[in-house]
Write a structure and sequence with these properties.
single chain; alpha/beta; 8-stranded parallel beta barrel; 6-stranded antiparallel sheet; 15 helices; 22% strand
Length: 809
């Protein structure tokens, strides 16, 4: 046994100060040629020992402290890989704790584990990455920012992003119920996801955790991928296989809190070392999750977590991280309950000026979450059925009478958002959502009639930001005043206590990742309505690439679960996204959080009979792909499972033996490929330049129509969605005629006749539909409709999504 000399005092200082970005290279257990080096940080204790199988778990291997730094080291000769060990910590008052190594690369499997938290020595070296992986990483880091039209745009925003979210433990299992390995997932999951047309795989946390039911979110080993599925080198092979197949890999990452297991980080030295002080309640997350909250005032927490993010990119070559930032931005967990009969009310905070510098700088920290609640609507009745109506054009023109050309509004790109809802022909600039969270006026959204809605919001009103916008330096104490809740208008609203140290941590994380790994993607799930999540740090943003737009998910699923007779009253749940559409760079997530235990599957919550449910699923998926924003879909949705998802078993793959499910599975595959082949659906989906409403206010007929634009006129698409159970043999819609010269190819002569071709229809027979498709060209008429001087007539199936492409003879 000897003292390890590879660790220097400057490394310890950097760790304590919060500036270390690769501390996993020094701390933990490292297998060397002649033995294993052990390093652990446990300040203000009497003694630390290494115990394990190699010494029969006896107190024979005392570690040595480096001066008074709190860093304890030991080198044990003769040890190699996969040796079980733990740290025995003896406090100054002689309490003894058996702790897992915070930097362990492998944890013992549950089948062999005699002591929870037992770590194994492991050498991360030795895996030889493929040529395809090296080329993938080189391409990922090249030309991250793209200049176009005088603007600098992130390249990821100009590319398709269609994510398949996976929980490895329940995607597929062996016949005996045991888990697949990382190697088996590389052989089965990777080619499956690639064949289905997805661009990325997102894995729910694969870091080590004890309870299966936690789904990986109560992490007990941040530097150890779960041994349920194999070794770290096996996981490297899985990522390598993804890159060889052209798939990116995104990991759910949980830096807000950690498992409260006795062997974990909690009271690691007999005191609150990594976690916030629980005496005031701030150290614990939700009781149902049994986790402790990291204390972001402490520098070593920054070093531990930011180094962990770097570790995942460096060692495993992953391409992105998704994290819940709400629990980092705030100290507490407070949900405000709202109940209204006819409206959802959001309040925004007063204007404030953030302080300059790299501190918090988070503005008012208010705004409003765009979601309007979540529920299954009014039941799953059979609704109106599939009714086929053959109506004259004047009766089926999107619910509005055609007007002569002289009476139509000037311009022909349709109206956006609230303009179309009001029917006004006046010219207005589209609202980009940039004023969310500013000003003191209330915004009333008539989102639901006769329904009670519950939602969590953050009003931010009355926050004394002068007291909380302190520049935070790692290691300093921050004690912002806590704003108590208020009551008004029959609702109870409680503000949340912002954590300036948490805000600064998020920004430091973004800076560290961007500096070392340009091209990787950072995703934020944020539910409080925080502004500028995807804005650069230099512009007082949080620096993320994309934000999960949960408000869109809540509204969409609520609408989808509403029975047909009641959908007109819920119509604005779909069009409401115009109010906040481009305030952030977003991902539209239909993720696991919407399909957990006790929550119906997507197919199970839809209205209608069996046939209508499948048609509704296809229409909803078309809306999902056509709506601006990148996409994420949870596994199993492509199978149209009716039962709840369970972590205890694999997906219901047997459903593919049934025609309806097999047809829907094929539809998802073809729809995904269609999405990837259409630049209009992803190349301009972060600004108003790529989207224009044609019809947003046809609540009576449940029809939506909009344009998705691309840089070439020939690539733009007109999207028509029929969310009702009624079909129309002849349905007239307005179409755009004038295009900006820098974006569109303009017809050289007005005598050239324009027409549209249907290039995708969810009602096609091969998808399980009725076959009501538009095979012939759809010629444009000089008949006004939907505030457009020109229009066309098409057949419109019930519960369908149709994509049209323009042509010029």
């Amino acid at each position: 046994m000897s003292h390890n000399s590879n660790l220097h005092e400057k490394d310890v200082i950097a760790f304590r100060d919060g500036t270390a970005r690769g501390c996993y290279r020094n701390f933990g257990a490292h297998v060397m040629e002649e033995g294993v080096s052990f390093v652990v940080w446990a300040p203000e204790v009497k003694k630390v020992r290494v115990v394990g199988d190699f010494n029969n778990w006896e107190e024979s291997h005392d570690m040595r402290q480096m001066g008074s730094t709190g860093v304890w080291t030991l080198f044990v000769k003769g040890l190699g890989e996969l040796v079980p060990y733990m740290f025995q910590v003896v406090t100054k008052d002689d309490q003894v704790f058996l702790k897992a190594d915070p930097f362990a690369f492998v944890r013992e499997t549950r089948e062999r584990e005699k002591r929870p938290g037992t770590s194994l020595t492991y050498n991360l070296d030795g895996y030889e990455w493929s040529k395809e992986d090296r080329e993938w990483l080189a391409d990922r880091g090249a030309e991250v920012m793209h200049e176009e039209g005088g603007m600098v745009i992130c390249r990821s925003q100009l590319q398709p992003l269609l994510i398949y979210e996976v929980h490895l433990g329940s995607w597929k299992r062996r016949q005996d119920g045991s888990y697949f390995t990382y190697m088996e997932f590389a052989q089965e999951l990777v080619p499956y996801v690639s064949s289905m047309g997805y661009t990325h795989i997102q894995l729910m946390p694969v870091m080590e955790h004890i309870a299966d039911e936690s789904l990986g979110y109560q992490i007990s080993g941040y530097y150890a991928v779960s041994n349920r599925f194999g070794t770290p080198r096996d996981f490297m092979a899985f990522v390598d296989a993804c890159h060889q197949a052209g798939l990116g890999v995104i990991l759910d990452w949980v830096p807000a809190g950690f498992s409260d297991d006795e062997f974990g980080l909690g009271q690691f030295n007999g005191k609150y070392l990594f976690e916030a002080d629980q005496q005031d309640g701030s150290g614990r997350e939700l009781e149902s999750e049994k986790s402790l909250r990291f204390d972001f005032v402490r520098g070593w927490v920054w070093s531990y977590l930011i180094s962990n993010a770097i570790f995942l990119f460096e060692v495993f070559h992953v391409d992105g991280l998704r994290l819940d930032v709400t629990r980092i931005l705030y100290r507490d967990e407070i949900v405000a309950s709202l109940k209204f009969d006819t409206a959802i009310v959001y309040e925004s905070a007063g204007d404030t000026d953030p302080e300059e510098g790299f501190g918090p700088g988070f503005g008012s920290g208010a705004g409003f979450g765009p979601g309007t609640g979540f529920g299954s609507g009014t039941g799953f009745g059979s609704g109106a059925g599939f009714e086929s109506e053959s109506k004259p054009d004047s009766e089926a023109e999107s619910g509005s009478q055609a007007k002569p050309e002289s009476e139509t509004a000037k311009g022909s790109e349709g109206l956006s958002g609230t303009e179309a809802q009001s029917g006004s022909a006046a010219k207005h600039e589209p609202w980009d959502g940039s004023d969310i969270g500013k000003g003191s006026a209330s915004t009333v959204i008539d989102a639901a009639t006769g329904l009670e809605t519950e939602t969590g919001i953050n009003t931010g009103a009355g926050l004394d930001t002068a007291k909380i916008l302190n520049t935070v330096v790692a290691g300093t104490d921050v004690s912002p005043d806590h704003q108590e809740g208020s009551e008004s208008r029959g609702r109870v609203v409680k503000t949340r206590e912002i954590d300036p140290a948490g805000v600064s941590f998020i920004r430091a994380l973004s800076v560290a990742v961007r500096k070392r790994y340009p091209g990787v993607l950072m995703f934020a799930e944020e539910v409080s309505g925080w502004q500028d999540v995807t804005q650069p740090i230099e512009e007082d943003g949080l620096g993320f690439d994309f934000k999960y737009e949960l408000g869109w998910s809540y509204d969409t699923l609520r609408y989808a679960g509403t029975d047909f007779p009641w959908r007109p009253s819920q119509h604005r749940l779909v069009s409401f996204s115009s109010m906040y559409l481009f305030s952030e760079s977003v991902v539209l997530p239909l993720s696991h959080r919407f399909f957990q235990k006790g929550i119906p599957s997507l197919a199970g919550r839809l209205a209608g009979d069996y046939r209508q449910k499948f048609a509704g699923l296809r229409a909803l998926y078309c809306y999902f792909l056509a709506h601006p924003g990148k996409k994420l879909m949870f596994m199993g949705t492509e199978l149209a499972q009716f039962t709840e998802w369970s972590y205890q078993s694999g997906l219901e793959w047997f459903l593919l033996d049934y025609d309806w499910h097999e047809s829907f599975h094929g539809f998802v595959r073809e729809a995904n490929r269609f999405y990837g082949a259409q630049p209009a659906l992803w190349s301009m989906d972060m600004t108003w330049d790529g989207f224009t409403w044609i019809e947003a206010d046809n609540a009576k007929q449940g029809v939506f129509c909009f344009v998705r634009k691309a840089r070439r006129y020939d690539d733009q698409l007109v999207v028509v969605l029929n969310m009702s159970a009624v079909s129309y043999d002849r349905f007239r819609i307005g179409v755009p005629t004038v295009y900006e010269e820098h974006c569109w190819k303009v017809a050289e002569s007005r005598s050239q006749r324009r027409f549209y071709k249907e290039i995708f229809n969810s009602d096609a027979v091969e998808f399980g539909g009725s076959g009501m498709v538009n095979e012939q060209p759809l010629y444009v008429d000089r008949i006004a409709c939907n505030h457009c001087p020109e229009s066309l007539v098409l057949g419109l199936p019930p519960l369908s999504g149709i994509f049209l492409r323009p042509h010029i003879e």
